[in-house]
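Task: encode each sequence below as structure tokens.

Item 1
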Amino acid sequence: MPKTAWVAGALMIAGMVAAGLWFHPDAMRQRRTDRPPKPAPPAPITYFQLEPEARVFAQYAGSASCRDCHKEAYALWKTSNHGLAERLPDPARDREAFVPSRTFKHGTQSTEARERDGRFEIVADGLSNRAPLTVERVIGNDPLIQFLVPFPGGRWQTHEASFDPRKKEWFNVYGDEDRQPGEWGHWTGRGMNWNTMCAACHNTRLRKNYDEASDTYRTTMAEMSVGCEACHGPMKDHTDWQNAHKNQNKKDPTLKPLNRGQWLDTCAFCHSRRMDLTGDFKPGDRYLDHHSLIVVDETDIYHPDGQVRDENYEYTAFLGSKMSASGVLCMDCHNPHSMKTLLPGNLLCQRCHEGGHTNAPIIDPVKHSFHKVFNPFVDAAGQPVEVDLSATDFKNVKETGGQCVNCHMPQTVYMQRHWRHDHGFTVPDPLLTKQFGIPNACNRCHQKPEETVDWAIAYVDKWYGEKMNRPSRERTRWLARARQGEAAARDPLLRLMTAETNAYWRAVSANLLESWAHEPAVTAALLRQLADTNALVRGHVVQSLGRLAEQPSPAVEQALRAALADPVQSVRYHAAIALRAVLDPQSPVGRELLHTLDVNADQPVGQMQKGVYYLARKEPQRALAHFQKAAQWDAYSPGVRHELAIVHSLLGQTEEALKQMREAVRLAPREAEYHYKLALALNETGDVAGTVAALEEAVKLDPRHARAWYNLGLGRNAQGHTFPALEALARAETLEPSDPRIPYARATILAREKRYEEARVAAKKALGLNPHYREAQALLQALAAPPGP
């Protein structure tokens, strides 16, 4: 097996409400005629520049300035989860957690919470001397409270020991995990660092202010907690004008009301899983000018139908929903100040689904759900009664099976105590559970031994029949198959990318097409889709085309360069990443990219991104320093070890590369790709037997790993095992029929075995896939000559 430049394709690092119609709780019917906003015309490019902090904070007046004029809204906000998102310790609120002192065990560790001399303290494992740490800030309110303790370098760490104010008990947010000091996700590690992981969404207009050279923070904010201006934007001009014109009934020229799209972007800032591009979002800004949104992709962050799996908050799932596509926004259902729903239970959904909304189908909850439905407007005999909704107890309702949210917004628990509704408004489909392991709401509730997936399928088929064969089921099937690497998913993805009416799913399709981006038909389709009016779609198209950036065709290079001038920064970011090897760092988009790299440089993934940047720019030693720092900060991450091994290999440091790959395999022994890369590293040392053994483990773990089968064929051939070599190459060819190297490899082995006719067929197949394949041309010419004696 020839020595392999095994870097190609490996350094793919994961980058990581509404104005208008607000419903009063008494409004049982409201006719809405609004539609999703039409795409705005292309805006002029505004390249991001960070404003001076003093100038920014001077524009904020603080929430207290709103109280006198907005008494009702202020009162609702003050005690809400937003109003109490972050605060100083309060004896009236927090003493119950620390008095009396108590100790609880979790895994091999224990934590004590106590009060000493008027201070709240936590004593826990993680520091060498187990010294008590003083709680100096509190984040969260309901259903859990977490505590911040100061660390050197301007850091604040979020402790794993958390308090449940409902049950009045301490618990560990990691559950049964026994995270140890030194792990990225331990409470002393960067995964629980408040400055970068929590602060921006628990405060108002925060500046992280990280200094990479000293690895320190100088974090500041306009106001602690999620204040009024966190959603309404800076309001000092407004309060000053109002104070100067009291009782004059004049129109305030300082007010610039946000439109519905801007309100949604404001909520999305905190209620989404994303990569931060600027570190300085404010209400009124475009979300995609400040963030790169994480969508359904090859990872397990989301399920293929859009349901949340990992901790993803609400926005992304909502974007993929029919509600979002119909123009519904957050505050059509939530009070904008308390954030509670405007009406309880099915009353909220029925406000639109009983004919009060021009786009919403009329739904009878009883007939639709086939479950008992709680109805406060009738008595036990079914007779109508007058109801005071504010005095009705909805918390102890027994008939939960007929509640709309329990089927279409199933809950998942995060941080052990926080049950969150999925905002994808998906349809429960146990058939997709059986086929792809996607959870369904039926079996989330029905968990008796006899209530199997097949049992749920039988009821769903009986009740809904052909209605279940809806377009979203078919879409989910192809997305699931694409995530599994099935070639048959390519063409359906191409159709979804162009025909899907919901832009979110067009973006997902473009994202998943990256695996086939090198194929001419896919490349052409992606290039055409760059004309999509939706920036999320364009960004993921650029991301997929970026796979071709090392050796782009003229059309791809031209398209990527054109994307550098896109009016939306997230699109420019993906183009800049693709062209990082040749991008002028002093150009406006070059400076934007460097700013983004700096914003994220306090985390291991940010250091890896910097390493990739300098590696592409032919500065491997500089890249190595960033990868080493990432490994130091996240010593237990196999992915970091894998990337570090690649850099060592590029620098010719074979033994160090081998060491890092062995560590990656030790940390993730079930990851086929790491065994494959270990095989390539072993091959660099000439260890053929070790190479073959590692490749055999790779294909055992992932039978669809075409490159591993191909290299296994070459390795077995080097050992003189002809038949097993041909067998492995045949498997590779089945999995990757468009790769001409595989039939060429077969042809060389067959020729050596004097199976000349079979060798000719294989060589011709290689040339059919690549007419310019010189080695195949030479072999075919040699095979055309009569064999010697």
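Item 2
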Amino acid sequence: MNAESNAEESGVYAGLVARYARQIAGQLGCWDRVVITGSLEEVSHPRALERQLFAAGIRCFDLAQFAEPLREAVRAHVEGLAKAAGATVEYVRSRQVRKEDLVAAVLTRRGTAPGLVHVISAMETCPAYRPWRDKGSGRTGVTLTHGQCLHYYLYFLHPRLGLCYLRVPTWLPFRLQFYFNGHNWLAGELTRTGIAHRMRDNTFVEIADWPRAQQLADGFSITALQADLDALARHCLPFLPRFPRGYHWSLRQVEYSWDLVWRRAEDLAPVYAELSRQAILTVKAADIARFLGKRLSAEAEASSDFATFHECTRIKHRLGSVFLKLYDKHGLVLRLECTANDVTFFHHFRKVVGRDGRAKYQNAALKKSIYSLGDLAELMRAATTRYLAYLSGLEDRAPGQVDLDRISRPVHDDHHRSYRGFNFFAAADLGVLLALVRGEYQISGLSNRWLRPVLPGLSGGQIGRILKRLRLHGLLKKVGCTYKYYLTRLGQKALLTALKLKEHLVVPTLAGLAPAK
């Protein structure tokens, strides 16, 4: 959205957006990291697998006879896909290796054409089945446990979703994991729509039409996502026709972000510094619960922490399995992010079918199905809205930081001559600033001639240079075709600060240090 025209109309973060409308280029709410789990329904739980074994005439203790042909089919098929795409299968032994870095290196050589980019294989833990026997009844079956098997990470440049991966295990129950980033998907939509944009990593720093970009983000199609997931599963798993019910897709981890994009990094820096400083000190457990639309219970675990990374700093508030985060992305974007590791944390009013088959509408936990993404977007956006509304109500000292930095730094005139800044703790500078506070100057203005009696130790030339320093630092403005000057709004704030500094700090401190008579 355009910051100035839609700050009040949008109703989202209006306090902060209205305050910094001139500095904000736009705002955007969008899915970020989305991780989805795929469960093969015919073998997704022990009873289902037992039915498959019985139909195939295989005993539970001969489970390997059922699973090994499927494993070998997956291995051969994945290697065939890689060969056909001109990609390689790279085995990774260490967990310290970042798969994203390996893929990024391949992309620099390969280019951005859609298709299979790279395949990474690794031994990782996974759910698995083991046979069991009841010695009393003699009954046999299978039960879920944990084991290790070879996993393939197939990285694609998907024509609709952008860079994504599908993690394929080589053992029952063949539970898939799919990842995509909503910002990559939106970048593709903007390109297809002809809207110019620029990204840094997973962050938009420029979009030609922010309101249209928000409309595209809000129009994310879950039906199209389901079709894409089913197509990828069919593409990567050669045995899928054997299981006609296919995969059921559920949400594992979901992130929704709202970005306020600043025009200049130097404008965002003091704002973020002040927001983060106050947020880490003032946000309490009850506030976190309120942001997330929850009632704080006695057993709830809530926490806040601050972390520094190479590219940004981050504040994170946690309540149970859900996090609220505040970032300064690339120095240009104030990002609020809501992350859910278990979407059933959120409740909403929906249809619930009881064990007796009767249906009624009531407040219930969100389902893990991907078709909950629509309701989840509203719930997460509301959480970020409440969070930033709280931050907007904090005392805003950021403009003061900018003003102090402006006053204290050296400046140059049109002839490149340097004029030093003002130091509130230097006696000479403090004396000059306090001289300007005199009441008669607030009505009639001031001039070089009128300042000489109150600054007796300075010549007219020295006072003239001081007046130029004050003008260049934005503390004075000159009346056209005259020798009169008036204080600017910044100058009035600086003089009040100087007066408070003298009356409330310097004088009391010196009085305390004076020797007793």
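Check on item 2: Residues 1-13 have pLDDT under 50 and may be disordered. Residues 321 and 342 are 6 Å apart (CA to CA).
End of task.
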